Amino acid sequence: MIPSRLEHLGSFFPTPGYCDEEMHFYRAGGLREPGADDEAAHQDEDEDIEAGRFARDEIRRMIAQGEIVDLKTLGGIALLHNAL
User: Fold this and answer.
1) Which of 49, 48, 65, 45 is nearest to 57 (CA)?
2) Of 18, 36, 69, 79, most Cβ neighbours within 10 A?
3) Alpha carbons 56 and 62: distance in angstroms, whole number
4) 63 near 78, Cβ under 8 Å?
5) Taking the CB of residue 2, how many other CB atoms lie within 10 A of it?
6) Structure pTM?
7) CA nearest 2: which of 29, 36, 37?
8) What proportions of the chain, in percent to the nearest 5, are helix, strand and coil?
9) What are the DSSP E strand ranges found in 1-84?
10) What is the pLDDT of residues 47-83, one digit of tens each?
11) What is the C-alpha separation between 1 and 16, in angstroms, rounded?
């Protein structure tokens, strides 16, 4: 998907004291499918990325049932929740 607008939600260091990696989270809006003229937007052959839409209740259920377990995703969800 290609966004027409991005909103910076926040940033954090996922492993302070271990490395200096900083993660930046954005909310993407005005999404559209890549077209033929969007060559850079197409996946590489070895990429396995599947975009999806989820309602807030579905995200809560996925967290509660252990389907979403990595802290980077949970951190992004928390930043998004604070922005809503």
Assistant:
1) 65
2) 79
3) 10
4) no
5) 13
6) 0.76
7) 29
8) 30, 20, 50
9) 5-12, 23-29
10) 887 778 899 899 999 999 999 999 999 999 999 888 7
11) 31
Paired tokens of 50: 């599947």
Q: Give me the numbers of helices (H) and strands (E) for the chain, helices first please.
A: 2, 2
Tokens of 5: 């607008």
Residue 3, CA distances (Å) to 16, 34, 43, 45, 82 in order: 31, 10, 16, 22, 21
- ∠ CA 62-48-15 to the nearest 5 degrees? 65
- Token look-up 């004291």 returns 17
State residue 84's pLDDT score: 63
Domain boundaries, the chain: 5-36+51-83
